[in-house]
Description:
This protein is of the alpha+beta class. 41% of the residues lie in helices and 20% in strands. It is elongated and about 55 Å long.
Amino acid sequence: xxxxxxxxxxxxxxxxxSENARLPxxxxxxxxxxxxxTVQGRLARLEREGIIAGYTTILGRAARPATTIAALVMIxxxxxxxxxxxxxxxxxxxxxxxxxxxxxxxxxxxxxxETASDxxxxxxxxxxxxxxxxxxxxxxxxxxxxx
Length: 147
């Protein structure tokens, strides 16, 4: 188990990478007050232990269609149909996220479309799927921040 000071350094390293994963290791080392080799070793360990599972690119507005409209859809399911519903949702490119939930609703789905009518059609398709009891949708008006 990592010493408390090592755990704090790991948290700081993860925070720095979360803000900008493209920083050179030498710059991260300066920010943490350790050597470049130490940062490289910590990164390798965090990856090996599954704490850091990968790195990604987050597309900006310029890469998305200007007319993108998104909604969050809460789905109540017939429990034995969950696998089939998730498999069908996974095949639709407009469905960009699907999470299971505790509570009254079973799934939380994020849908992104180019037009409001496309969004309406996808939400209707979800509501009409076998195994879906009920849906509640909210259109996303603005993103205030994203981590």
